[in-house]
Amino acid sequence: MTFQQVYGYEPAVRYSAPGRVNLIGEHTDYNDGYVLPFAIDRRTTASIAPRTDRVIRVASAFDEAGGPVSLPLDELTPDAMDGWSSYVFGIAWSLREQGADLADKTGFDVFIESDVPVGAGLSSSAAIECGVALAFNDLWELGLDRKSLARVGQYSENHAVGAPTGIMDQSASLLGEQDAVVFLDCRTLDTAVVDLALEANGLEVLVMDTRVEHAHATGGYAARRASCEKGAKVLGVEALRDVAVDDLPRAQDLLDDETFRRVRHIVTEDQRVLDTVRTLREQGPRAIGSLLVASHESMRDDFEISVPELDLAVATAMEHGAVGARMTGGGFGGAAIALVDREAREAIAAAVTTAFAAAGYREPNVFTVHAAQGARRD
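Given the sequence above, the corresponding structure tokens read:
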């Protein structure tokens, strides 16, 4: 299905935005902490044409219903949105909620296509949000910068979609650069681009999608966020970003065991992000493997967001020579990543697939990604 097949004419413009892989720094974003994602060479494209009325129509290549969903600009509310189209409608609503004057704006016909795997923890949702946000910002001539658009995307995800995520995914999708990671301070929104230098070091990032799907708007993600907020309140800090590794013995005295382990993951994960940035700058990517593995162990044991399929993918990759490996994304399914030598990629991918078959798991989708440019007009 194409824009022309749905709407009967050709689109005026196309914008695209990438999914992301988080190299390290999981669940630290909504704790005002540090993250280190990169945009990937899997993208979502929004084909768009302005309308003469104030209606937004949305359709996609992956919506089996086929026909477009329509909402007038004046009727945009979270209650009026439903399903995947809320990722598009929510951006227009969020722009208005964040202060954009849409009183004299016309609507759009929008068609979404994507090769970002859904449910793999590669932020297919933020790819939609960021491509659409950049497009609406340009076409409505709102003049917002990319950091502001990241906040618009996060606000939409939190309040229109209903997923209590932080700002990392949108920041990576909008600010990513070639062969680099985005070092983001989620409190100040200060960013720095850090060279990954994988190409020069003969390394690649292997994504091991377990095909165990997860949904951020339900269940465990919200529970983990609540635990973090509880820990911060008991410890008397604004956010867990304000707790240092040296403060953990005191935290253990004040918190119940489960809350303490949630807190310990966030505090140590923040430190691992800082250590990874320093190591990349001083020693290069081959030196970060132990930090990736420690991150996975913390997510598995303290934050308890891994699943057996993710643990098997990580363990198998390490047994077959990966530099480092960890689950990535919100957890409870999705994907793990492994930093591997280019010439070992196929053997490690085959070993993971074989291990899944032996365990009776669904066949994983294993593929490489490269750090790529962020959202753009194509």
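The two ends are 20 Å apart (CA to CA). Try to locate this feature in the token string yourself.
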